[in-house]
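FAQ

Q: What does a record look like?
A: Structure on top, sequence underneath. For example:
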């Protein structure tokens, strides 16, 4: 099976300089959000930036806990923040990370739980979400759609 980061169908691999100004701004916001991360246990500081349907940017960073399983990822923190601002439709999300445990060429990609949460919002709002995944330092960017990252998703349930 092809590795997503190695250029699977539909996935683009670019450099930061190839991005259009809007995507560059989103990656910059994700990178800046890493500075607010609370990650004393893993040392992996993750930042996420959502582009809302109306063009705003909502950021979040990971918040760890001594009970490790209570940690909340950057992407879900950003979704919670956007939801509190009344927004659930996201046209793009950028993810960045910093930390000595990451390799320089390692693509930082949303975990399965975050993909599921992003899928819920995409489905209920009928929005296609692009996912911009960066290497530490954000020099290289991998772009895919949420559908590519989470094929055959669960839900949402009927209301
Ligand atoms: N993390 C995120 O914030 N987002 C992801 O999609 C993957 C993992 C965080 C959780 C934890 O604080 C640290 O990265 C190491 O797993």
């Amino acid at each position: 099976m092809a590795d997503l980061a190695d250029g699977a169908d539909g996935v683009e691999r670019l450099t930061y300089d190839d991005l259009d100004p809007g995507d560059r701004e989103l990656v910059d916001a994700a990178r800046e959000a890493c500075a607010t991360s609370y990650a004393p246990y893993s040392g992996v500081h993750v930042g996420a930036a959502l582009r809302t349907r109306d063009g705003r940017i909502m950021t979040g960073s990971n918040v760890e806990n001594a009970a490790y399983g209570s940690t909340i990822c950057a992407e879900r923190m950003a979704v919670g923040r956007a939801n509190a601002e009344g927004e659930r439709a996201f046209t793009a999300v950028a993810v960045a990370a910093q930390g000595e445990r990451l390799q320089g060429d390692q693509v930082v990609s949303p975990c399965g739980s975050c993909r599921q949460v992003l899928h819920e919002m995409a489905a209920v709002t009928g929005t296609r979400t692009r996912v911009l995944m960066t290497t530490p330092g954000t020099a290289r960017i991998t772009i895919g759609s949420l559908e590519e990252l989470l094929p055959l998703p669960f839900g949402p349930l009927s209301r």
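Q: Is there anything notable about this one?
A: The chain has a mean pLDDT of 95.
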